[in-house]
């Protein structure tokens, strides 16, 4: 398919009404999502009008959280819209991997502000659902697909009277009825999305759309699980059946979320650990624990109280259980003349049947234990939090409560030492609080005075008198001596790095004095990877040197300097990632397996050329490699065995001081795929994209003439790497196996002793288009030199 002004890269998504492609807008070189209406719908004027109207609506809504329109047009029988390309997937995609509550609240706030603008401009979306909330690269949420949107006061007959438009699981009650709607209908749909993001499921389910609609109309507002009870009030206003009881506009939702964030966040956030998946404020964690425990305790206490008060005791019968009493209200008939009165009939007349002697009551031990356990967890959590963190208003706690909490925290800490010893400065001590300006003095006169403690003023004069021993009194200092401390010094590179000790309150300073113990040190700096490690202080000063690793920007290009001042091959940095390796089309590329590349690396942008390779040959006095009379210089080096390639990377490592090697099969395929999932990194066939013998339409290879092309003749893939398909096949590190059963999932090489064949990847100028795919592979003899096999190199960055 061709649309003037655009180069279509690949299909992104397809629906019943249109197909969306990733394309390049050639006039500005911009990536866009090209939405093309199905040609089959052109005959229906309603669909054509809707398609055009979507562009007109979005064109009037300029907002960072609403998809942008760049162009709209028609070419032959194709209606198209060019809009923002949003590569971050949808809310539906992200729910599969899990969303944190902070992410959910952020998404809700951004969508609320987007709807606020749309409603202010007079447009109702009518199809709010997870699939229509997409993400930019910076993770900001974007509202898309205004295909069924309408104006509040529209006179357009886009739908028949009573017709319901939208997705059943997300329809508002008034939308399900087919009644007139306004922006509050979108707010209800957003509430359904909110519930689904929190719980992973929609609140109302049924096999048929009509049954789902009935639940929207009649079912009560769903209750969130206890851990999300903080958000129930927000959900109640979003999902109110009556639109007048909901938030009236998106700005109100955003304000409510901001207020909720302010409530949950403490003034001084204390993070549990920097290694947690997401840092949590201690105040937020404590509140969540209290709310969850409150629900459990309330249920258990109600059941326990009901059971206790259901028992009676009399001298005659002993213990017996009182029967449940049912109350029945009976309306009298008109004949009695008591129309306005009610008669209460009780089952007490049958109580004799229940008043049977019973054994002594057996209380539910499990119920009592569960309540005790929950209360204990709450108490010890509060104790540890009070000892280690600055809780709001802790100075107002009564002394007895603070003392008891400190004592409990010390017990917890004593038990925890066996698992993870803490530094002495972080060990809570059961220190009793005494009133200010008072000092406890033990009287010790020789005249038989009692030994009870006396309270005297702690004013300076009184303290001096006590210190001087007036009246022969002996002062007993109840404060234990401070522990021995030792200096800790962290020398960081770069010099402006931020240094923190995570498991104590004190701010780090060079040479900080600390008691013996273990300390979690964190060093961070902009554009560097963070460093975190436990440091042990025993009985001496500790000095630690930390050099942070520079963050590496994928796509950056560099050349390392050789020992003679020349430059090595041009390298491009490849970031870490995950991909599906292999293909089901052939046995030697199966089974398909998920491979994770955990560290960034750099790979040569081009196949190693004769110009690169001859620097090594010259340095080692090895003569020249045969070029088959195809040309040297920028053409890929050929007639190089696997062992020759290994010798080259060893020389390159020695000459530059860097760690060069051949890429593994997994690394090679990860680079060749460049984030794509198709057979080639380009979306269509191989014509004009690579140098191969058949199906590539190459100027260098044909039915009778086959030769290599200068590297870089064809376009680079999205990672900035050239010629992964065709030109020359490439040696890699692995021993060749005719399957992937033993291939590691971490991207490392397959190693076999006495390996008879080594893997080559990517096909060559002698291959057909079907043989130069991203997953193409074969085995070659490592000691043999081939005219269609070259190599590229990888340098480790860490």
Automatic annotation (TrEMBL):
Its EC number is 2.7.11.1. Keywords: ATP-binding, Kinase, Membrane, Nucleotide-binding, Serine/threonine-protein kinase, Transferase, Transmembrane, Transmembrane helix. Residues 6-264 form the Protein kinase domain. Pfam families: FGE-sulfatase (PF03781), Pkinase (PF00069). It comes from the Bacteria. InterPro entries: CTDL_fold, Kinase-like_dom_sf, Prot_kinase_dom, Ser/Thr_kinase_AS, SUMF_dom, SUMF_sf. The chain crosses the membrane at residues 278-297, 368-389. One of its GO terms (molecular function) is protein serine/threonine kinase activity. This is non-specific serine/threonine protein kinase. It comes from Simiduia aestuariiviva. The lineage of its organism: Bacteria, Pseudomonadati, Pseudomonadota, Gammaproteobacteria, Cellvibrionales.
